[in-house]
């Protein structure tokens, strides 16, 4: 039994890392796309289409530069290798992620809360409490995926309802597994 578990963990870890690598690639390149980047790779053109691009060397803010440095450090730690000849990227809810004001960074320790038992929870496009823009919600019974690092007390989540990802966004008062368990907010914690 112990060997079967070790074999399963050896297979699961690379898959989780690959998911994080795709997520990190998307975040980094969304920053560049928003700055006017014209993509030269098949993958970049397929995901961002170059419709409103203006340069191959966009100027970005210091905050975006720091975010890209963080993403690249995480990509290095995970030894990410993205197929730039591909034309699809397996990232959950790309359409929603493009609408976010604050971009999430894939976590090293993702987990999920299946069968949400907490209150109705609105989800927002960013972490600026002065300018809330509601873009979704968590409802009773939803499966909630915590796959990104919290930022300034806010947590980014994606939400699955009836086997389909239907929402995502930020909520104030980030959660960790211990708090979810202590407050009885999940039917089952995984990861």
Number of domains: 2
Mean pLDDT comes to 88
Number of contiguous helices = 5
- What is the number of strand segments? 7
Report on the architecture of this protein.
By secondary structure, the protein is of the alpha+beta class. It folds into 2 domains: 2-78; 102-190. 35% of the residues lie in helices and 25% in strands. It contains 5 helices and 7 strands. The chain has helices at 2-34, 42-48, 62-78, 94-97, 177-182; strands at 106-116, 121-124, 134-138, 143-148, 154-161, 164-172, 186-190. The strands form 2 sheets. Strands 6-5-4-1-7 form a 5-stranded antiparallel beta sheet. It has a two-stranded antiparallel sheet with strand order 2-3. Helix 1 (2-34) packs antiparallel against helix 3. The longest helix has 33 residues, at 2-34. The chain is globular, with a radius of gyration of 17 Å. Residues 1-14 have low confidence and may be disordered.
Describe the protein's topology.
Elements: H1 2-34, H2 42-48, H3 62-78, H4 94-97, E1 106-116, E2 121-124, E3 134-138, E4 143-148, E5 154-161, E6 164-172, H5 177-182, E7 186-190
Helix pairs in contact: 1-3
Features:
alpha+beta, 25% strand, disordered N terminus
TL;DR?
With 191 residues, the protein is α+β, with helices and mostly antiparallel strands. It is built from 5 helices and 7 strands; from the N terminus they run H-H-H-H-E-E-E-E-E-E-H-E.
């Amino acid at each position: 039994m112990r060997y079967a578990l070790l074999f399963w963990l050896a297979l699961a870890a690379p898959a989780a890392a690959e998911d994080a690598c795709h997520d990190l690639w998307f975040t980094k390149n969304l920053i560049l796309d928003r700055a006017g980047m014209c993509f030269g790779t098949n993958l970049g053109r397929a995901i961002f289409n170059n419709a409103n691009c203006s340069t191959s060397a966009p100027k970005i803010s210091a905050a975006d530069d720091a975010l890209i440095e963080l993403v690249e450090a995480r990509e290095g730690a995970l030894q990410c290798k993205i197929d730039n000849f591909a034309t699809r990227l397996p990232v959950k809810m790309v359409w929603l992620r493009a609408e976010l004001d604050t971009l999430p960074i894939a976590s090293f320790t993702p987990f999920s809360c299946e069968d949400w038992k907490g209150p109705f929870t609105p989800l927002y496009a960013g972490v600026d409490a002065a300018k809330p823009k509601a873009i979704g919600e968590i409802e009773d019974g939803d499966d909630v995926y915590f796959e990104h690092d919290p930022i300034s007390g806010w947590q980014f989540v994606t939400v699955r309802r009836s086997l389909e990802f239907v929402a995502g966004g930020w909520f104030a008062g980030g959660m960790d597994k211990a708090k979810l368990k202590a407050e009885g907010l999940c039917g089952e914690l995984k990861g």
